[in-house]
Q: What sequence folds into this?
């Protein structure tokens, strides 16, 4: 029941702020191996972090238009997302990398992690759109 309320509320009215994030990570990697893109109603934030105990990170934030935010939400299949298992395949096995998507709506958080570049069919359109945003912001200078 909560799933139906959440997905119908998120997909139709967007009264509760929704943050969609996408990230990648590689366990055996040197440099900026962990990347995350957070898409909220007013901004998009790109974070790159180094592996290990190093806390060094790069953060870039840019404003996001209401139109692009609405487009991201309208193309995202919330119902299918909430039905997926939290882990698909064997993410980062044999250092193949992991990729994930997460939706935060109010106190509800759902994350799905899958093998790098093996996007579930339901999200290929959404991931393509998110990767375009990521490519645009990845070139900005850190704050």
A:
């Amino acid at each position: 029941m909560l799933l139906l309320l959440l997905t119908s509320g998120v997909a139709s009215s967007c009264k509760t702020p929704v943050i969609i994030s996408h990230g990648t990570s590689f366990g055996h990697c040197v440099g900026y191996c962990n990347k995350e893109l957070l898409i909220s109603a007013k901004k998009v934030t790109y974070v790159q972090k180094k592996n290990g105990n190093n806390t060094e990170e790069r953060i870039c934030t840019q404003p996001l238009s209401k139109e692009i935010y609405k487009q991201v939400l309208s193309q995202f299949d919330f119902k299918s997302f909430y039905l997926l298992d939290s882990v698909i395949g064997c993410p980062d096995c044999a250092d193949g990398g992991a990729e994930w998507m997460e939706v935060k709506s109010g106190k509800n958080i759902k994350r799905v992690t899958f093998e790098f570049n093996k996007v579930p069919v339901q999200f290929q359109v959404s991931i393509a759109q998110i990767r375009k945003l990521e490519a645009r912001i990845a070139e900005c200078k850190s704050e």
Q: What stands out?
A: The chain has one domain: 2-138.
